[in-house]
Specification:
Blueprint: E1 4-8, E2 13-15, H1 18-25, E3 32-35, H2 41-49, E4 81-89, E5 94-104, E6 107-120, H3 122-140, E7 144-148, H4 151-166, H5 180-192, E8 197-201, H6 209-224, E9 230-231, H7 237-240
Length: 245
């Protein structure tokens, strides 16, 4: 098993795939990351926490480019009901939280913040957000689209879980899949309402308003340690976008 450490990025911590690592550093100016030498999770955590300076990145050096500023705008608003969800985690594993935004016919309707957990991870925050969306879609019983920037969550719920279910909830190598109980909750609910829901990938941190707002809702829950899901009453977008760690 491989491990990657991200010390500076959209989310920091330990990630088990290069794809997950890339999501945290892509578009982040001054990202600091490296493939760890550890062979297991315990060793990876020790290596990550050791605090040594990372002298080189995983990718080949690239020519310096002028940072591109992204305008905040709606890129993925279809007619109907659209959910955006995101997770927050400052150390991976570590405390995590989630945020959800709901649009109807292109109009912002609801903001939710919550699911803070002292013992969490980046993936747990992402999955908790999707689980909240799935429950809401079941409740309203209306065709909806969920947008998430977590490819791991999409694959775990819509692809891998079908195989894991047939393999006693283990991966092909015989090991129990990560976050399996949470994945199972999402998976069973997804199968139940599959005719109502689409789960699609959205690039994170490129100025997509729904993604940016759900990110701030997750950060708000993190900062205030909000464990239950609560509606966020202030819909002033400029003020919400100022929320940061």
């Amino acid at each position: 098993m491989k491990f990657y450490g991200v010390w500076k990025g959209h989310n920091v911590g330990i990630f088990e795939t290069w794809a997950e690592c890339q999501e945290q550093i892509k578009g982040f100016k001054g990202a600091v990351y490296k493939k760890l030498n550890a062979k297991d999770r315990s060793s990876a955590e020790s290596e990550f926490k050791s605090g040594y300076e990372v002298s080189q990145s995983l990718s080949k050096p690239k020519k310096k480019k002028t940072a591109k500023k992204h305008k905040v705008r709606n890129l993925h608003l279809n007619a109907g009901i659209n959910f955006f969800c995101d997770g927050a985690c400052q150390a991976n594993p570590g405390p995590s939280s989630s945020g959800v935004v709901i649009y109807k016919d292109g109009i912002l309707k609801k903001l939710y913040t919550g699911s803070f957990k002292e013992k969490g991870s980046n993936n747990i925050g992402e999955l908790e957000g999707i689980l909240f969306c799935l429950n809401k879609i079941k409740e309203i019983n209306r065709p909806s689209t969920i947008y998430t920037d977590s490819q791991y969550s999409i694959d775990a719920i819509t692809k891998w879980a079908f195989s894991w279910e047939n393999n006693n909830w283990c991966k092909s190598d015989g090991e129990v899949a990560e976050n399996i109980e949470l994945v199972k909750e999402c998976f069973f609910l997804y199968k139940e309402i599959k005719n109502l829901v689409k789960i699609e990938k959205v690039k994170g941190h490129i100025g997509e308003l729904g993604n940016e707002l759900s990110d701030r809702m997750a950060i708000n829950a993190f900062l205030n340690k909000i464990s239950d899901w609560v509606a966020y009453k202030n819909h002033n977008i400029e003020e919400i976008l100022k929320i940061e760690y």
